[in-house]
Design goal:
The structure is a homodimer.
Chain A (H helix, E strand, L loop, with lengths): L9 H14 L8 E2 L1 H8 L3 H13 L3 E3 L5 E3 L4 H25 L4 H17 L3 H18 L3 H21 L6 H16 L3 H19 L10
Antiparallel strand pairs in A: 1-3, 2-3
Chain A binds a DNA duplex through helix 3.
DNA sequence: GACCTGTCTTTCGTATACGAAATTCGGATG
DNA sequence: CATCCGAATTTCGTATACGAAAGACAGGTC
Protein backbone atom coordinates (compact mmCIF):
# COMPACT_ATOMS: atom_id res chain seq x y z
CA UNK A 1 0.00 0.00 0.00
CA UNK A 2 0.97 3.61 -0.52
CA UNK A 3 1.83 5.74 2.50
CA UNK A 4 -0.61 8.64 2.83
CA UNK A 5 0.64 11.90 1.42
CA UNK A 6 1.41 14.48 4.10
CA UNK A 7 -0.80 17.32 3.00
CA UNK A 8 0.73 20.76 2.79
CA UNK A 9 0.25 23.11 5.71
CA UNK A 10 -1.74 26.29 5.31
CA UNK A 11 1.49 28.26 5.59
CA UNK A 12 2.94 26.42 2.59
CA UNK A 13 -0.22 26.71 0.55
CA UNK A 14 -0.48 30.39 1.36
CA UNK A 15 3.18 30.87 0.45
CA UNK A 16 2.75 29.07 -2.86
CA UNK A 17 -0.28 31.13 -3.80
CA UNK A 18 1.31 34.44 -2.84
CA UNK A 19 4.53 33.49 -4.62
CA UNK A 20 2.69 32.79 -7.82
CA UNK A 21 0.57 35.91 -7.53
CA UNK A 22 3.69 38.02 -7.06
CA UNK A 23 5.74 36.37 -9.79
CA UNK A 24 2.95 36.41 -12.35
CA UNK A 25 2.31 40.08 -11.73
CA UNK A 26 -1.20 39.39 -10.45
CA UNK A 27 -0.18 41.52 -7.49
CA UNK A 28 1.65 44.49 -8.91
CA UNK A 29 5.07 45.64 -7.69
CA UNK A 30 4.64 48.26 -4.98
CA UNK A 31 1.17 47.02 -4.10
CA UNK A 32 0.55 46.48 -0.41
CA UNK A 33 -0.14 43.08 1.10
CA UNK A 34 -3.01 43.43 3.53
CA UNK A 35 -2.98 40.47 5.89
CA UNK A 36 -6.64 40.68 6.86
CA UNK A 37 -7.70 40.96 3.26
CA UNK A 38 -5.53 38.05 2.14
CA UNK A 39 -6.68 35.92 5.05
CA UNK A 40 -10.32 36.42 4.07
CA UNK A 41 -9.67 35.84 0.36
CA UNK A 42 -7.68 32.65 1.00
CA UNK A 43 -10.10 31.50 3.66
CA UNK A 44 -7.46 31.10 6.37
CA UNK A 45 -6.63 33.05 9.49
CA UNK A 46 -4.06 35.81 9.52
CA UNK A 47 -1.48 33.55 11.16
CA UNK A 48 -0.49 31.49 8.07
CA UNK A 49 -0.54 34.68 5.98
CA UNK A 50 1.83 36.34 8.41
CA UNK A 51 4.25 33.40 8.34
CA UNK A 52 4.17 33.19 4.55
CA UNK A 53 5.00 36.88 4.33
CA UNK A 54 7.97 36.33 6.64
CA UNK A 55 9.34 33.80 4.17
CA UNK A 56 8.75 36.09 1.19
CA UNK A 57 10.51 38.89 3.03
CA UNK A 58 13.56 36.67 3.63
CA UNK A 59 13.60 36.04 -0.13
CA UNK A 60 13.34 39.75 -0.92
CA UNK A 61 10.18 39.23 -2.91
CA UNK A 62 8.38 41.68 -0.63
CA UNK A 63 9.90 44.74 1.00
CA UNK A 64 9.30 46.52 4.26
CA UNK A 65 7.89 49.99 3.96
CA UNK A 66 9.26 51.03 7.33
CA UNK A 67 5.68 51.96 8.17
CA UNK A 68 2.98 49.38 8.30
CA UNK A 69 3.16 46.06 6.51
CA UNK A 70 4.99 45.11 3.36
CA UNK A 71 4.71 45.79 -0.36
CA UNK A 72 5.57 43.61 -3.32
CA UNK A 73 9.21 44.40 -4.06
CA UNK A 74 9.56 46.89 -6.91
CA UNK A 75 10.94 45.48 -10.14
CA UNK A 76 14.63 45.98 -9.70
CA UNK A 77 16.56 46.20 -12.94
CA UNK A 78 19.81 45.76 -11.02
CA UNK A 79 18.51 42.54 -9.49
CA UNK A 80 17.54 41.23 -12.88
CA UNK A 81 20.90 42.09 -14.38
CA UNK A 82 22.58 40.43 -11.39
CA UNK A 83 20.72 37.25 -12.08
CA UNK A 84 21.46 37.34 -15.76
CA UNK A 85 25.11 38.05 -15.12
CA UNK A 86 25.27 35.02 -12.85
CA UNK A 87 23.43 32.84 -15.32
CA UNK A 88 26.03 33.62 -17.97
CA UNK A 89 28.48 31.78 -15.75
CA UNK A 90 26.21 29.16 -14.25
CA UNK A 91 24.00 28.03 -17.12
CA UNK A 92 26.92 26.86 -19.28
CA UNK A 93 28.39 25.24 -16.18
CA UNK A 94 25.11 23.51 -15.44
CA UNK A 95 24.99 22.30 -19.05
CA UNK A 96 28.47 20.80 -18.68
CA UNK A 97 27.52 19.05 -15.47
CA UNK A 98 24.26 17.85 -16.97
CA UNK A 99 26.23 16.13 -19.73
CA UNK A 100 28.08 14.14 -17.09
CA UNK A 101 25.33 13.45 -14.59
CA UNK A 102 21.99 13.50 -16.36
CA UNK A 103 19.62 10.82 -15.11
CA UNK A 104 18.43 7.82 -17.12
CA UNK A 105 15.03 9.43 -17.53
CA UNK A 106 16.65 12.32 -19.40
CA UNK A 107 15.48 11.40 -22.92
CA UNK A 108 11.84 11.21 -21.85
CA UNK A 109 12.02 14.43 -19.90
CA UNK A 110 13.74 16.17 -22.77
CA UNK A 111 11.13 15.03 -25.26
CA UNK A 112 8.33 16.16 -22.95
CA UNK A 113 9.71 19.64 -22.41
CA UNK A 114 10.49 20.19 -26.10
CA UNK A 115 7.01 19.04 -26.93
CA UNK A 116 5.53 21.41 -24.42
CA UNK A 117 7.58 24.26 -25.83
CA UNK A 118 6.54 23.42 -29.39
CA UNK A 119 2.86 23.31 -28.47
CA UNK A 120 3.00 26.63 -26.60
CA UNK A 121 4.77 28.05 -29.62
CA UNK A 122 2.12 26.80 -32.03
CA UNK A 123 -0.69 28.15 -29.87
CA UNK A 124 1.11 31.46 -29.29
CA UNK A 125 0.46 31.03 -25.57
CA UNK A 126 2.92 33.50 -24.05
CA UNK A 127 2.34 32.36 -20.50
CA UNK A 128 2.82 28.67 -21.25
CA UNK A 129 5.88 29.57 -23.30
CA UNK A 130 7.46 31.43 -20.42
CA UNK A 131 6.71 28.54 -18.08
CA UNK A 132 8.21 26.05 -20.52
CA UNK A 133 11.31 28.22 -20.79
CA UNK A 134 11.66 28.30 -17.00
CA UNK A 135 11.16 24.55 -16.84
CA UNK A 136 13.72 23.91 -19.56
CA UNK A 137 16.47 25.69 -17.69
CA UNK A 138 15.35 24.33 -14.33
CA UNK A 139 15.58 20.84 -15.78
CA UNK A 140 19.22 21.38 -16.70
CA UNK A 141 19.93 22.68 -13.20
CA UNK A 142 18.35 19.55 -11.82
CA UNK A 143 20.33 17.33 -14.17
CA UNK A 144 23.51 19.09 -13.07
CA UNK A 145 23.20 17.18 -9.82
CA UNK A 146 24.16 20.32 -7.93
CA UNK A 147 21.40 20.81 -5.37
CA UNK A 148 22.63 24.18 -4.23
CA UNK A 149 22.76 25.52 -7.76
CA UNK A 150 19.26 24.19 -8.32
CA UNK A 151 17.91 25.89 -5.20
CA UNK A 152 19.64 29.21 -5.76
CA UNK A 153 18.41 29.40 -9.33
CA UNK A 154 14.86 28.48 -8.34
CA UNK A 155 14.84 31.70 -6.37
CA UNK A 156 16.39 33.51 -9.30
CA UNK A 157 13.65 32.34 -11.64
CA UNK A 158 11.00 33.72 -9.33
CA UNK A 159 12.57 37.14 -9.67
CA UNK A 160 13.01 36.67 -13.41
CA UNK A 161 9.38 35.67 -13.90
CA UNK A 162 8.35 38.92 -12.18
CA UNK A 163 10.46 40.89 -14.57
CA UNK A 164 9.20 39.03 -17.60
CA UNK A 165 5.60 39.42 -16.53
CA UNK A 166 5.79 43.19 -16.84
CA UNK A 167 8.57 43.84 -19.37
CA UNK A 168 8.08 41.13 -21.92
CA UNK A 169 4.52 41.39 -23.13
CA UNK A 170 5.79 40.67 -26.63
CA UNK A 171 7.63 37.34 -26.68
CA UNK A 172 10.58 38.10 -28.89
CA UNK A 173 11.43 35.51 -31.50
CA UNK A 174 10.34 32.51 -29.42
CA UNK A 175 10.89 30.04 -32.23
CA UNK A 176 14.60 30.85 -32.24
CA UNK A 177 14.72 30.34 -28.48
CA UNK A 178 13.32 26.86 -28.85
CA UNK A 179 15.55 25.97 -31.74
CA UNK A 180 18.46 26.83 -29.47
CA UNK A 181 16.95 24.85 -26.62
CA UNK A 182 16.65 21.83 -28.88
CA UNK A 183 20.26 22.14 -30.02
CA UNK A 184 21.51 22.40 -26.44
CA UNK A 185 19.59 19.35 -25.34
CA UNK A 186 20.84 17.40 -28.33
CA UNK A 187 24.46 18.10 -27.29
CA UNK A 188 23.70 17.27 -23.64
CA UNK A 189 22.28 13.92 -24.72
CA UNK A 190 25.48 13.24 -26.65
CA UNK A 191 27.46 14.14 -23.50
CA UNK A 192 29.31 16.73 -25.56
CA UNK A 193 30.25 19.04 -22.67
CA UNK A 194 32.17 21.67 -24.59
CA UNK A 195 29.57 22.14 -27.30
CA UNK A 196 26.69 22.15 -24.82
CA UNK A 197 28.37 24.84 -22.73
CA UNK A 198 29.25 26.89 -25.81
CA UNK A 199 25.70 26.72 -27.16
CA UNK A 200 24.37 27.73 -23.75
CA UNK A 201 26.71 30.72 -23.68
CA UNK A 202 25.46 31.83 -27.08
CA UNK A 203 21.88 31.25 -25.99
CA UNK A 204 22.26 33.67 -23.10
CA UNK A 205 24.18 36.16 -25.19
CA UNK A 206 21.36 36.16 -27.69
CA UNK A 207 18.79 36.48 -24.93
CA UNK A 208 20.41 39.71 -23.82
CA UNK A 209 20.19 41.10 -27.33
CA UNK A 210 16.61 39.95 -27.76
CA UNK A 211 15.60 41.61 -24.50
CA UNK A 212 17.19 44.77 -25.75
CA UNK A 213 19.39 45.56 -22.83
CA UNK A 214 23.04 45.11 -22.21
CA UNK A 215 25.08 45.26 -19.10
CA UNK A 216 27.03 48.50 -19.14
CA UNK A 217 28.79 47.96 -15.85
CA UNK A 218 31.62 46.22 -17.56
CA UNK A 219 31.30 42.59 -16.62
CA UNK A 220 34.05 40.49 -18.14
CA UNK A 221 33.01 38.04 -20.79
CA UNK B 1 18.86 64.53 12.86
CA UNK B 2 18.99 60.79 12.42
CA UNK B 3 15.81 58.85 11.68
CA UNK B 4 15.10 56.37 14.46
CA UNK B 5 16.19 52.84 13.68
CA UNK B 6 13.28 50.46 13.15
CA UNK B 7 14.00 47.80 15.73
CA UNK B 8 13.95 44.22 14.62
CA UNK B 9 10.81 42.21 15.12
CA UNK B 10 10.79 39.22 17.44
CA UNK B 11 10.53 36.97 14.38
CA UNK B 12 13.75 38.39 12.97
CA UNK B 13 15.56 38.22 16.28
CA UNK B 14 14.40 34.66 16.81
CA UNK B 15 15.48 33.75 13.29
CA UNK B 16 18.92 35.30 13.77
CA UNK B 17 19.48 33.46 17.03
CA UNK B 18 18.32 30.11 15.68
CA UNK B 19 20.37 30.59 12.50
CA UNK B 20 23.51 31.18 14.48
CA UNK B 21 22.80 28.31 16.85
CA UNK B 22 22.32 25.96 13.91
CA UNK B 23 25.30 27.17 11.89
CA UNK B 24 27.67 27.18 14.84
CA UNK B 25 26.68 23.66 15.76
CA UNK B 26 25.28 24.78 19.10
CA UNK B 27 22.20 22.83 18.08
CA UNK B 28 23.44 19.58 16.62
CA UNK B 29 22.29 18.22 13.24
CA UNK B 30 19.35 15.90 13.75
CA UNK B 31 18.38 17.56 17.01
CA UNK B 32 14.73 18.47 17.33
CA UNK B 33 13.52 22.04 17.63
CA UNK B 34 10.90 22.17 20.35
CA UNK B 35 8.82 25.30 19.90
CA UNK B 36 7.62 25.52 23.48
CA UNK B 37 11.11 25.04 24.81
CA UNK B 38 12.63 27.62 22.46
CA UNK B 39 9.87 30.09 23.22
CA UNK B 40 10.58 29.86 26.94
CA UNK B 41 14.35 30.06 26.52
CA UNK B 42 14.15 33.07 24.20
CA UNK B 43 11.46 34.68 26.32
CA UNK B 44 8.95 35.06 23.49
CA UNK B 45 5.72 33.32 22.64
CA UNK B 46 5.59 30.34 20.31
CA UNK B 47 4.33 32.48 17.47
CA UNK B 48 7.64 34.16 16.49
CA UNK B 49 9.41 30.82 16.95
CA UNK B 50 6.97 29.17 14.59
CA UNK B 51 7.47 31.86 11.92
CA UNK B 52 11.25 31.74 12.24
CA UNK B 53 11.17 27.97 11.76
CA UNK B 54 9.09 28.44 8.61
CA UNK B 55 11.87 30.60 7.18
CA UNK B 56 14.58 28.13 8.17
CA UNK B 57 12.60 25.36 6.55
CA UNK B 58 12.39 27.31 3.28
CA UNK B 59 16.18 27.61 3.41
CA UNK B 60 16.59 23.89 4.05
CA UNK B 61 18.44 24.51 7.29
CA UNK B 62 15.85 22.47 9.14
CA UNK B 63 14.03 19.44 7.79
CA UNK B 64 10.57 18.03 8.33
CA UNK B 65 10.45 14.68 10.05
CA UNK B 66 7.11 13.87 8.52
CA UNK B 67 5.94 13.29 12.06
CA UNK B 68 5.98 16.06 14.58
CA UNK B 69 8.08 19.18 14.28
CA UNK B 70 11.39 19.72 12.57
CA UNK B 71 14.99 18.76 13.15
CA UNK B 72 18.18 20.58 12.29
CA UNK B 73 19.06 19.38 8.79
CA UNK B 74 21.69 16.66 8.82
CA UNK B 75 25.11 17.61 7.55
CA UNK B 76 24.86 16.81 3.89
CA UNK B 77 28.16 16.15 2.20
CA UNK B 78 26.51 16.42 -1.20
CA UNK B 79 25.19 19.88 -0.31
CA UNK B 80 28.62 20.99 0.78
CA UNK B 81 30.23 19.70 -2.38
CA UNK B 82 27.53 21.42 -4.41
CA UNK B 83 28.38 24.70 -2.79
CA UNK B 84 32.07 24.23 -3.27
CA UNK B 85 31.58 23.25 -6.88
CA UNK B 86 29.62 26.42 -7.45
CA UNK B 87 32.16 28.55 -5.64
CA UNK B 88 34.85 27.33 -7.98
CA UNK B 89 32.98 29.13 -10.71
CA UNK B 90 31.60 32.06 -8.78
CA UNK B 91 34.42 33.13 -6.49
CA UNK B 92 36.82 33.85 -9.36
CA UNK B 93 33.98 35.59 -11.15
CA UNK B 94 33.22 37.66 -8.07
CA UNK B 95 36.90 38.57 -7.83
CA UNK B 96 36.86 39.77 -11.43
CA UNK B 97 33.78 41.87 -10.85
CA UNK B 98 35.20 43.22 -7.60
CA UNK B 99 38.20 44.52 -9.51
CA UNK B 100 35.88 46.55 -11.70
CA UNK B 101 33.29 47.70 -9.19
CA UNK B 102 34.86 47.79 -5.74
CA UNK B 103 33.71 50.78 -3.69
CA UNK B 104 35.91 53.68 -2.63
CA UNK B 105 35.98 52.35 0.91
CA UNK B 106 37.65 49.16 -0.32
CA UNK B 107 41.17 49.90 0.98
CA UNK B 108 39.92 50.51 4.52
CA UNK B 109 37.71 47.44 4.48
CA UNK B 110 40.50 45.32 3.10
CA UNK B 111 42.91 46.49 5.77
CA UNK B 112 40.35 45.80 8.49
CA UNK B 113 39.60 42.26 7.37
CA UNK B 114 43.23 41.34 6.87
CA UNK B 115 43.99 42.72 10.30
CA UNK B 116 41.17 40.70 11.80
CA UNK B 117 42.45 37.57 10.10
CA UNK B 118 45.98 38.20 11.29
CA UNK B 119 44.88 38.69 14.86
CA UNK B 120 42.74 35.57 14.90
CA UNK B 121 45.72 33.74 13.43
CA UNK B 122 48.06 35.02 16.13
CA UNK B 123 45.64 34.09 18.88
CA UNK B 124 44.85 30.69 17.33
CA UNK B 125 41.17 31.49 17.71
CA UNK B 126 39.57 28.97 15.35
CA UNK B 127 36.12 30.46 15.63
CA UNK B 128 37.24 34.02 14.88
CA UNK B 129 39.36 32.68 12.05
CA UNK B 130 36.40 30.94 10.44
CA UNK B 131 34.29 34.07 10.81
CA UNK B 132 37.05 36.21 9.25
CA UNK B 133 37.28 33.74 6.38
CA UNK B 134 33.55 33.97 5.80
CA UNK B 135 33.69 37.75 5.98
CA UNK B 136 36.59 37.92 3.55
CA UNK B 137 34.74 36.08 0.84
CA UNK B 138 31.45 37.82 1.62
CA UNK B 139 33.24 41.14 1.21
CA UNK B 140 34.30 40.20 -2.32
CA UNK B 141 30.76 39.13 -3.14
CA UNK B 142 29.58 42.51 -1.92
CA UNK B 143 32.22 44.34 -3.91
CA UNK B 144 31.16 42.39 -7.00
CA UNK B 145 28.08 44.59 -7.08
CA UNK B 146 25.99 41.55 -7.90
CA UNK B 147 23.24 41.54 -5.29
CA UNK B 148 21.87 38.17 -6.30
CA UNK B 149 25.27 36.53 -6.07
CA UNK B 150 25.73 38.11 -2.68
CA UNK B 151 22.40 36.81 -1.41
CA UNK B 152 22.77 33.32 -2.81
CA UNK B 153 26.22 32.94 -1.34
CA UNK B 154 25.12 34.26 2.04
CA UNK B 155 22.86 31.23 2.21
CA UNK B 156 25.70 29.04 1.02
CA UNK B 157 27.96 30.26 3.79
CA UNK B 158 25.39 29.34 6.40
CA UNK B 159 25.51 25.77 5.16
CA UNK B 160 29.29 25.88 4.94
CA UNK B 161 29.65 27.15 8.48
CA UNK B 162 27.59 24.20 9.68
CA UNK B 163 29.90 21.82 7.90
CA UNK B 164 33.02 23.52 9.19
CA UNK B 165 31.72 23.54 12.74
CA UNK B 166 31.70 19.76 12.87
CA UNK B 167 34.30 18.67 10.32
CA UNK B 168 37.05 21.17 10.73
CA UNK B 169 38.04 21.13 14.37
CA UNK B 170 41.65 21.42 13.27
CA UNK B 171 42.13 24.56 11.17
CA UNK B 172 44.41 23.34 8.44
CA UNK B 173 47.29 25.60 7.51
CA UNK B 174 45.44 28.84 8.23
CA UNK B 175 48.51 31.01 7.70
CA UNK B 176 48.64 29.89 4.07
CA UNK B 177 44.96 30.71 3.64
CA UNK B 178 45.54 34.25 4.77
CA UNK B 179 48.65 34.68 2.69
CA UNK B 180 46.47 33.77 -0.28
CA UNK B 181 43.71 36.11 0.87
CA UNK B 182 46.22 38.94 1.08
CA UNK B 183 47.53 38.23 -2.41
CA UNK B 184 44.03 38.15 -3.89
CA UNK B 185 43.09 41.46 -2.29
CA UNK B 186 46.32 43.01 -3.50
CA UNK B 187 45.44 42.10 -7.11
CA UNK B 188 41.85 43.29 -6.66
CA UNK B 189 43.14 46.64 -5.44
CA UNK B 190 45.30 46.88 -8.54
CA UNK B 191 42.21 46.07 -10.65
CA UNK B 192 44.13 43.17 -12.15
CA UNK B 193 41.11 41.04 -13.09
CA UNK B 194 42.90 38.09 -14.66
CA UNK B 195 45.41 37.63 -11.87
CA UNK B 196 42.76 38.08 -9.15
CA UNK B 197 40.55 35.44 -10.75
CA UNK B 198 43.47 33.07 -11.24
CA UNK B 199 44.61 33.44 -7.64
CA UNK B 200 41.07 32.82 -6.45
CA UNK B 201 40.84 29.66 -8.55
CA UNK B 202 44.05 28.39 -6.99
CA UNK B 203 42.82 29.38 -3.55
CA UNK B 204 39.74 27.18 -3.92
CA UNK B 205 41.71 24.36 -5.50
CA UNK B 206 44.03 24.40 -2.52
CA UNK B 207 41.13 24.56 -0.12
CA UNK B 208 39.81 21.29 -1.52
CA UNK B 209 43.14 19.62 -0.99
CA UNK B 210 43.47 21.04 2.50
CA UNK B 211 40.02 19.77 3.43
CA UNK B 212 41.05 16.38 2.20
CA UNK B 213 38.22 15.66 -0.12
CA UNK B 214 37.85 15.84 -3.82
CA UNK B 215 34.85 15.76 -6.05
CA UNK B 216 34.70 12.35 -7.68
CA UNK B 217 31.60 13.03 -9.74
CA UNK B 218 33.68 14.37 -12.55
CA UNK B 219 33.01 18.07 -12.62
CA UNK B 220 34.89 19.77 -15.45
CA UNK B 221 37.68 22.10 -14.44
C1' DG C 1 7.37 -12.27 29.78
C1' DA C 2 6.11 -10.31 25.10
C1' DC C 3 2.78 -7.88 22.72
C1' DC C 4 -1.31 -5.41 21.88
C1' DT C 5 -4.57 -1.64 22.76
C1' DG C 6 -6.79 2.14 24.80
C1' DT C 7 -5.81 6.43 27.31
C1' DC C 8 -3.10 10.25 28.79
C1' DT C 9 0.40 13.68 27.73
C1' DT C 10 2.98 16.36 24.69
C1' DT C 11 3.48 19.33 20.89
C1' DC C 12 2.25 21.12 16.73
C1' DG C 13 -0.72 23.96 13.39
C1' DT C 14 -4.02 27.28 13.31
C1' DA C 15 -7.59 30.49 15.16
C1' DT C 16 -8.66 34.17 17.95
C1' DA C 17 -7.65 37.99 21.16
C1' DC C 18 -5.25 42.13 22.46
C1' DG C 19 -2.25 46.08 22.70
C1' DA C 20 0.38 49.37 20.05
C1' DA C 21 1.58 52.01 16.13
C1' DA C 22 0.08 54.08 11.81
C1' DT C 23 -3.30 56.18 9.10
C1' DT C 24 -7.56 58.61 8.39
C1' DC C 25 -10.66 62.09 9.08
C1' DG C 26 -13.40 65.71 11.07
C1' DG C 27 -13.62 69.81 13.55
C1' DA C 28 -11.26 73.81 15.41
C1' DT C 29 -8.31 77.67 14.27
C1' DG C 30 -6.11 81.09 11.59
C1' DC D 1 -10.37 78.06 2.43
C1' DA D 2 -6.03 75.99 4.07
C1' DT D 3 -3.84 73.98 8.05
C1' DC D 4 -3.21 71.71 12.26
C1' DC D 5 -4.39 68.58 15.93
C1' DG D 6 -6.45 64.79 18.22
C1' DA D 7 -9.91 61.10 18.27
C1' DA D 8 -11.53 57.10 15.68
C1' DT D 9 -10.25 53.43 12.76
C1' DT D 10 -7.28 50.30 10.61
C1' DT D 11 -3.74 46.96 10.63
C1' DC D 12 0.14 44.97 12.30
C1' DG D 13 3.03 42.13 15.71
C1' DT D 14 2.62 39.15 19.28
C1' DA D 15 0.29 36.45 22.97
C1' DT D 16 -2.88 33.14 24.17
C1' DA D 17 -6.37 29.53 23.28
C1' DC D 18 -7.95 25.34 21.14
C1' DG D 19 -8.36 21.12 18.48
C1' DA D 20 -5.88 17.35 16.35
C1' DA D 21 -2.24 14.16 15.79
C1' DA D 22 1.96 11.86 17.64
C1' DG D 23 4.32 9.67 21.18
C1' DA D 24 4.39 7.55 25.88
C1' DC D 25 2.68 4.50 28.99
C1' DA D 26 0.03 1.32 31.62
C1' DG D 27 -3.02 -2.40 32.05
C1' DG D 28 -4.84 -6.43 29.89
C1' DT D 29 -4.27 -10.68 26.99
C1' DC D 30 -1.97 -14.71 25.29
Amino acid sequence: MEPVKAQKTLVEQTYDILLDAICSGEIQPGERLNQDDLAVRLNVSRQPVNSAISILRAQRLVADTGRRGVVVAPIDMAMFQSIHEMRQKLDPFAAELACLRKPDTAPDEAAAILDRGARALAQQDARALLQADVDFHAMLYRWSGNTFLEGAMALGWNHTRRFMAVALRTPSAPQIVWTEHRAILERVMARDTDAAAALMRDHLENAIDRLGFRDETGAPR
